[in-house]
Structure formats: C-alpha cells, structure tokens
Amino acid sequence: MVIVLREGATEEDIEELVAILHEVGAEAHISRGEFRTVIGVIGDRERVMQMPFEAYAAVEKVVPIMKPYKLVSREFKDEPTVIRVGGAEIGGGTFTIIAGPCSVENEGQVVEAARAAKEAGATLFRGGAFKPRTSPYSFQGLGEDGLAMLARAREETGLPIVTEVLDVRDIEVVSRYADVLQVGARNMQNFLMLRDLGLQDKPVLLKRGMSSTVEEWLMAAEYILKEGNKGVILCERGIRTFETGTRNTLDISSVPTVKNYSHLPIIVDPSHATGVRELVAPLCKAALAAGADGVMVEMHPNPREALCDGPQSLTLEGFRTMMDELKGLADFLGKK
Ligand code: PEP
Ligand code: MN
Q: Do the bridges between strand 83-85 and strand 88-90 make them parallel or antiparallel, or are there none, so unpaired?
C-alpha cells in the first residue's frame, strides 16, 4: 500500500510513520515528489492494512496497490523516473539513443563506432564484452579486455558505457568499467542476479525476456528496486511468436502498456527484435511515435566482418541517415 502524506508533512512526521512501519516488520520506501511525499509500504498486507494510519494528521490517505509489483507501479510513484548518467538522460521528454556494436572486437572498432555514434547524436555507447551466445562454439566476447576497450571509447568520446553482465560473479568487474549494467533477455528472471544488481548503485538496463509477459518483466524490475536501486531502464527487445520472418516480434504495444503501469523509462531495441538491418530505422520511428524514451541499436564500422549480429547492424553511414530521420520526427513530436 501507499501512504500519501499531506503537503507540508515534516521530516519528523515521516520518521514517526517509518518507525511504526518498522515495528510491524514492514519496509518503507520514501518517494519525495515536488508537492507530496508518499511512503510505499511492503509487508504483511493484513497486518499493515489494519494500522490506523489515516488517524495521523500528516496522512492524507492510504491507498492499496492492487498490482503484484509495487515499487515499479504508477500507484506508488506517478512521476516518471528520469535516469541521469554522465551527460545522458533517459526518461523525462528526451528520446535517448544508445548505439554501438553487438560485441567488442578490438579497440579500433569500438573507438571508431563510438566516435560515429557521438557525432550523429547518440548519448550512450553500447558493446558486449560478455556475450550470451546460443552456441558455445560462437564468439563469447573478450571479457575484461573488452571492458577496458569500452573504457577507452568513453575516454575518447565522453559517452557513458552500457554493457551486459552475464553472470552474478561478473557484477564487480563489469561495474568497475561500465556506467549502465545490462541484463540480457536470457537473464531477465535470474532473480539472484537481479537482487545483487539492486544492491549496487549503477543504473540497470533490464531487457524483456523473450518469453516473458509485461507483468513478469515488471516483477523482475521490482526485484532490483526492492533492494534499493531505483535506476532501472526497461528495454523491449522482441518476443517469441510464430513469425519466422524476423528473429523475434517487436511488441510495440508494450511501450504504452508499460507507461500505463509504471513510472520507469522504457526503450526499444529493434536490432535484436528483428535481426534485420532494414527494419531498424522504421521501428525506431515506431518506438518514438509510441512514446518510448529511446532506442538501443547495433551499428558497426564493417557489419560484414562483425563477429556477432552483422546482419542486423547498421553501417555508420546508415546510422547517420537514421538519426537525421529521427530528428525530424522528434521535432514534430516535441521530443528532445
Ligand atoms: C545484446 O543486447 O547484446 C543482447 C544479447 O540482447 P538480448 O539479451 O536482447 O538478446
Ligand atoms: Mn547483438
């Protein structure tokens, strides 16, 4: 449930309520809005609902949260969450572009891609050093050497780095280099990893599992927020359907659905959703029109030689062209 405080409630009022909640074994998550503070309460529902919170002068009302997810819900926090990392902003009226190759292959490749990404207007750079590959015989990524190359690309361009954490044992090393930790589709329900990511303070980009409902995805985000990390960016990357023309099927409807239910920012990854380079720009436009907070796309200085996901990677030139088109549409829609 959520305890909505009156305007003008003091810090002492908040502390008093938090102490009472702790006494009955409930967790209190405080969210300070521009005008009002709300306390999100997680605990034994029966016990908490019996408490006479409405009798306190500082309390305006007590609202039960009906959804299974609590901290990620709009009932808990109506104001959209804005995540700031380096000079980039995700959420809050900006359409943010994250671009880069599928995987880090060598320093020259990532630095060239990062420069092109920055010049064309991307504000974050992506690249995988730990790769979740379907086949154990495919390129698995360069590991920590790859992370160091991403750090070089950041030095060159100033773009913050988004990169995947494949295993709970790698959280420490990946956080030493990365600015945003990506959870891949295959790990969306790795609950122990989600919990540990919730205990550290870097933002987490949480991809939707390829067979997960929106509700399961929001429950996964709840695991992270529950531990204290409020910086979650959701990423729609396509789901499994009977369609074989594309790698997955982009569920564009998840964008407004998530916006209805959650305050968290949501971005779209049309590269992994389709696996087809030609479909990336049209679906970025669809994401922008549907109200997404940004996109993440794969681009490569030489897609034909890419060690991973070449067929869906834009060329640097293709990326620039797409960015020009997106700028026109963003202006029209009043997005930055
Ligand atoms: C990726 O972004 O590099 C990736 C592997 O994506 P996904 O987890 O969505 O398949
Ligand atoms: Mn990829």
A: antiparallel
Mark the residues whose beta carbon lies below 5 A from ion ligand 2.
Answer: 102, 309
Ligand 1 neighbourhood includes 231 CB (under 6 angstroms): no
Query: CATH 3.20.20.70 occupies which residues in the chain?
Result: 83-333
pLDDT digits (tens, 9 = 90+) for 258-306: 999 999 999 999 999 999 999 999 999 999 999 999 999 999 999 999 9
Domain ranges in the chain with CATH number 3.30.70.1140: 2-63
CATH class of 2-63: alpha beta
Residue 247 in contact with ligand 1 by CB distance below 6 A: no
Predicted TM-score (pTM) of the model is 0.94
Tell the residue nearest (CA) to atom 6 of ligand 1. Answer: 184
Nearest CA to ligand 1 atom 4: 184
Assigned CATH class of 83-333: alpha beta
Count of Cβ atoms closer than 10 Å to residue 169 Cβ? 10
